[in-house]
Amino acid sequence: MKKLMLGNEAFARGLYEAGCSFVSSYPGTPSTEITEYAAKYPEIYAEWAPNEKVAMESAFGASLSGKRSFCGMKHVGLNVAADPLFTIAYTGVNAGMVIAVADDAGMHSSQNEQDSRNYARAAKIPMLEPSDSSETLKFVKAAYDLSEKFDTPVIVKMCTRVAHSQSVIETSDREDIPDKPYEKTPSKYIMMPSNAKGRHPVVEQRLKDLAEFAETSDFNKIEEGSDKSIGIITASTSYEYVKEVCGDTYPVLKLGMTYPMPEKLIKDFAASVDKVIVIEELDPFIETFCRNIGIDVTGKDKFTGIGEFSQRYIAEQLGKELPQYKSIDENIPNRPPVMCAGCPHRGLFYTLKKNKVNVLGDIGCYTLGAVPPLAALDTTICMGASISGLHGFNKLSEENSKKSVAVIGDSTFMHSGITGLVNIAYNESNSTVIILDNSITGMTGHQQNPTTGYNLKGDPCTKIDLEALCKSIGINRVVVVDPYDLKACDKALKEELAADEPSVIISRRPCALLKYVKHNGPISCDEGKCIGCKSCMRVGCPAISIANGKAVIDNTLCTGCGVCSQLCPAGALGE
Question: What is the helix (H) or strand (E) element at residue 345, kind and residue range?
Fold first, then answer.
């Protein structure tokens, strides 16, 4: 049956059809929907893990037990999972194991623009790179066969455009894959030095075998062209752009297996054309390989290593005219992200800015606290870095400890904040950590986490008690505040910063967009009382604007949280 599917949905369909039984992931745009779609198949057990490292180790355990498994993450999540990744490359697998990593060229929702192909090479693991939804489904199914044939985990690299665009796929039935028996094999799976030394030659031979496989694999294909003055080597979305711009004009070598690459196939292709151009986003991964095997190519001297490509960009760099129907002439206005109306983080960030506090931030919705007019953040590095960084920032400076805090969301705290808080308690830095508990994983689309009391499928499960957890690791001062109550926030912040021991403030209020949250309804502005001081604008709520010198409330956006009314000196904002 033919269907129109998102790349991430097609990925999940591939997991289903390939007989995958176990899925463990941590949500991260643009990879999140793979696991959400997989969870809809009753034949697949699917879960959110606390972080990517746990997800990969869990998927490995399922593979070891004999069941085909999967774990998914975005590119920075692979950094977190790198520890097990490099060693699982040595042990190999039992049943097939597939890893999805989704890169974010253009940094639509990421703090960096790293190229995950480098991980495949460094870890010595094969990588497949589909260019549309149809290939995604096919490649995922083939990845399991590849994994079991070569005794290795396989990475399938997605990117924002493939993950979140639609194309036609053709579905088929689920394969009935019997469980592989588990056999105790200490020399294969116990990676103490003596055993690891024996596995390294196995890994190197496997790479040679995979490179030989790549020479004739259907993953890589040559498409003939009428003009052999130029030959293009490309992959992923760059291939789609090249075909849209050039059609069948130039020969194209499309690499669907980007590690290891087929040396002979590339050399033969290069010999068949006058000039070779490599078109790839981000790092010169393919280009460097071509140069290393003696091929003179044009690549990053013409095509940037920064940001996403487009049809227009490819056409410009190749000196081609882009057909009008493939061009967008209008300048689309930017729409900078802001905290939603009624966001529970707004009142807390207003309090932090008012008190001129140094704020070490973290990854999540609350990163938007960096945006004016709140402009309350000083740093954002990676998951959990706020707490660890605060410890270092404060440890040798009593002055810093009295005016600096870390802010971290409930899901991010579960991901990698706990160990940072343990470090604060253990090494005794006088630091104040604020956990922004909005009862959900917000930025990636409302996924459950260990503090919500529900699992991926929405079933009730163990709920981690943040107050008890903080106290159990040695934090004696733990206070809970409602971020809609500005006076309570101000009081708690001042008291905890003045304390002479580590402390935690839990700012607790559910995300305003959660379906079960009931709002008071919009407030109104009494124009007769409004003095036009714009104090209400200091919280940056999108429901408030100024017209004719008076505050205006957008009834379609306002939730009635009441934060702005607490700032109005004239009492103009209310029911």
Answer: helix 345-354
Residue type, 508: R
Using one digit for the tens of pLDDT, what is the confidence trace for 293-330?
A: 999 999 999 999 999 999 999 999 998 887 766 666 66
Q: Is 544 exposed, middle or buried (0-12, 13-18, 19+ CB in 10 A)?
A: buried
**Per-residue confidence (pLDDT) for residue 429, from 0 to 100:** 96
Residue ranges of the alpha helices (H) in 442-521? 466-472, 486-498
Q: How far apart are CA 101 and CA 107, in angstroms?
A: 15
Q: How far apart are CA 257 and CA 251, in angstroms?
A: 18
The DSSP code for 414 is I
CA 13 to chain centre: 20
For residue 108, give the amino acid letter.
H
Round to whole Å and give the CA distance between 307 and 108.
10
157 is written with which tokens?
A: 């690299």
Sort 15 into a burial class: Cβ within 10 Å, 0-12 / 13-18 / 19+: buried
What amino acid is encoded at 267 in this protein? Answer: K
Q: List the beta bridge partners of residue 169.
A: 3
Give pLDDT, residue 321: 81
**CA–CA separation, 557 vs 336, rounded Å?**
17
Tokens representing 386 are 């706020």
- Quick one: CA torsion of 356, 362, 366, 367, rounded to 10 degrees? 80
State how far the Cα of 429 lies from the Cα of 546, in Å rounded to an integer: 45
The per-residue pLDDT for range 171-182, each reduced to its tens digit, is 999 999 999 999
Which residues, other chains included, contact 168 with Cβ-Cβ below 8 Å and sequence gap of 6+?
2, 3, 4, 5, 133, 134
Stated as kind and residue range, the H or E segment containing 169 is strand 166-170
207 vs 262: CA distance, rounded Å: 11
Cβ distance 311 to 238 under 8 Å?
Answer: no
Q: Kindly give, in sequence order, each residue whose CB lies less than 8 Å from that of residue 80, ignoring residues fewer than 6 positions away.
A: 26, 51, 52, 53, 73, 383, 416
19 to 38, 69, 137, 331: CA distances (angstroms):
12, 9, 13, 46
Q: CA 291 to CA 280: how far, in whole Å?
A: 15
Residue 111: burial class (beta carbons within 10 Å; 0-12, 13-18, 19+): middle
Distance from C-alpha of 54 to C-alpha of 415, rounded to nearest angstrom: 9
The one-character DSSP state at 379 is B
Query: Which SS3 state, helix, strand or coil, does residue 118 take?
Result: helix
Q: Classify the C-alpha dihedral 368-373-374-375 as positive or negative.
A: positive
Tally the residues of the chain: 575
Which of 441, 568, 421, 557 has its CA nearest to residue 502?
421
328 with 311: CB under 8 angstroms?
no
List beta partners, residue 433: 406, 504
Which two structure tokens, joined as six digits, stand for 504?
Answer: 């935690």
Q: Is there a cis peptide before residue 372, judged by omega within 30 degrees of 0?
A: no
Q: For residue 324, how many C-alpha atoms fall within 13 Å in the half-sphere facing its CB? A: 0
Q: How far is Cα 477 from Cα 201, in angstroms, rounded to an integer?
A: 53
What's the mean pLDDT in 490-507?
97
- What six digits make up the tokens of 356? 């001129």
